């Protein structure tokens, strides 16, 4: 079993030494030497680097996540499902220890930490790294789009199986996708009722990424860049009029306490997270263990989606008592703006990148269009 700082963060005797090494490593991440620097840091901490392929003893792998352990949402529940199933399907010989709440690597540090082998599994919030992983952020360039959470998961699975460029983009950073976790289908949560395109004119709407600013402008509204953690106060104080979000996240962030109109505008599901592995670790697994990981990855999207749908159903059932009104937005009015040159410019940016990588871009894009 692996030992050292990253396998026992509660060990106070080495805690300060490990924290200092991690801090130095993270500084070096930003200077381009993350893999080599992280490797030296792990050696200094006595982290074992033996290949499981040549090691018959039990292995404990590390899963790095920003999600708090007690969150109780679909992300946390499905992560624990994966961990429990991995142990069961390897007959207890191997297990995964989850380092919750960014205790080893924060959200934006996880890709580099996984690349360097600080952890073996982890959650990568793909839209945060659209320049690093543009192909795997395809959906983020095509909002609105008509697919649901599970449909986007299956599209990602298909693209990875059919087009090697998707996997190679991750392999360039010593990463491999073993599962997909799209976000829920989004609408708009607003502080006043929105019933038509005319009602959106001049509204201040939270945006992020590539597609949302262009879409909001095409709708005649004003894009406002505000962090997720600051959106509650922005809605409460009328800095924002609306934010794109789904019911589960609206409830989780408590936005539905201060914004009481959920607009069913069909923005579609956004691609959210890759369940990623350190590629070297994946390749070093014996065939039986790797097959377990592959099978769990195939089943993960359904397990996650089942939990997500339960949460969404519960949230919607509770909204009337909280005074939240659900309003249907005319789909045709949303679709009518998609040809706007600003929206098309964002889509063409992804198409150009995909074609440069040798992908049949239009074949992929056709699955993201109304």
TrEMBL record:
It comes from Thalassospira povalilytica. This is C4-dicarboxylate ABC transporter substrate-binding protein. PANTHER family: BLL6794 PROTEIN (PTHR33376:SF15), PTHR33376. Gene3D superfamilies: Bacterial extracellular solute-binding protein, family 7 (3.40.190.170). Keywords: Signal. The keyword Phosphoprotein does not apply. It holds the Pfam family DctP.
């Amino acid at each position: 079993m692996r030992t050292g700082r990253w396998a026992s963060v509660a060990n106070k005797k080495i805690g300060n030494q490990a924290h200092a090494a991690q801090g130095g490593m993270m500084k070096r991440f930003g200077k381009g030497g993350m893999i080599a620097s992280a490797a030296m840091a792990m050696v200094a901490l006595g982290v074992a680097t033996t290949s499981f392929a040549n090691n018959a003893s039990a292995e404990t792998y590390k899963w790095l996540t920003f999600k708090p352990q007690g969150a109780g949402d679909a992300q946390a529940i499905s992560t624990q499902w994966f961990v429990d199933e991995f142990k069961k399907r390897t007959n207890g010989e191997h297990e995964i220890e989850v380092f919750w709440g960014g205790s080893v690597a924060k959200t934006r540090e996880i890709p580099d930490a996984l690349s360097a082998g600080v952890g073996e599994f982890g959650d990568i919030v793909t839209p945060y790294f659209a320049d690093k992983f543009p192909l795997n952020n395809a959906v983020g360039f095509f909002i609105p789009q008509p697919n649901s959470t599970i449909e986007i998961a299956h599209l990602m699975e298909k693209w990875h199986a059919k087009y090697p460029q998707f996997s190679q983009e991750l392999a360039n950073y010593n990463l491999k996708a073993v599962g997909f976790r799209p976000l829920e289908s989004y609408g708009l949560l607003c502080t006043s009722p929105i019933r038509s395109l005319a009602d959106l004119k001049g509204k201040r709407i939270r945006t992020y990424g590539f597609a949302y600013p262009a879409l909001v402008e095409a709708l005649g509204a004003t894009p406002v860049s505000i962090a997720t953690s600051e959106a509650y106060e922005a809605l409460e104080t009328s800095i924002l009029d609306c934010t794109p979000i789904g019911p589960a996240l609206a409830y989780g962030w408590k936005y539905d306490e201060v914004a009481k109109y959920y607009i069913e505008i069909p923005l579609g599901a956004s691609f959210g997270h890759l369940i990623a592995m350190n590629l070297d670790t994946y390749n070093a697994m014996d065939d039986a263990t790797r097959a377990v990981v592959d099978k769990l990855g195939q089943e993960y999207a359904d397990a996650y989606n089942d939990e997500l749908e339960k949460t969404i159903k519960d949230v919607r059932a509770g909204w009337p008592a909280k005074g939240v009104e659900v309003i249907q937005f005319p789909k045709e009015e949303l679709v009518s703006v998609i040809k706007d040159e600003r929206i098309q410019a964002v889509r063409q940016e992804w198409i150009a990148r995909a074609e440069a990588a040798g992908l049949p871009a239009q074949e992929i894009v056709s699955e993201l269009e109304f």
